[in-house]
Specification:
Number of helices: 4
Largest sheet: 4 strands, mixed
Order of helices and strands: EHHHEEEH
Shape: globular
Strand order of the largest sheet: 1-4-3-2
Helix content: 40-55%
Strand content: 25-35%
Distance between the termini: 42 Å
Structural class: alpha+beta
């Protein structure tokens, strides 16, 4: 069984925090925000063993921005963009939340 070390840069943690705060404050739904946060952390935790199961994305813009081995995982209206590197490290490049993007 593969085991990966998941690396989450500060910029991604900031994006997650911003999304959770948006749900809690703009929609006045702190319980929903908590559930979303819990789901996001579960996805990140699952990447420790299942990162290789998501196929490599051949989208030109993704490969140009993140490299030819870019992968993504979607959860509801949220997406994690990541790569697996030779030393079994999963580096999460970006967290995208559609609700925030549409509001801006």
């Amino acid at each position: 069984m593969n085991h990966y070390k998941v690396i989450i840069p500060q910029s991604v943690l900031y994006q997650i925090d911003r999304y959770i705060n948006f749900i809690a404050h703009e929609y006045k739904a702190p319980l929903t925000a908590y559930r979303h946060y819990d789901e996001l952390m579960q996805v990140i935790h699952n990447l420790e063993t299942t990162a290789h199961l998501n196929p490599i994305r051949h989208t030109e813009s993704l490969q140009r921005n993140y490299g030819v081995f870019v992968r993504q995982i979607n959860l509801k209206n949220m997406t994690f963009v990541y790569c697996i590197y030779a030393n079994n490290e999963v580096y999460i490049h970006e967290f995208i939340a559609q609700k925030i993007i549409k509001e801006e």
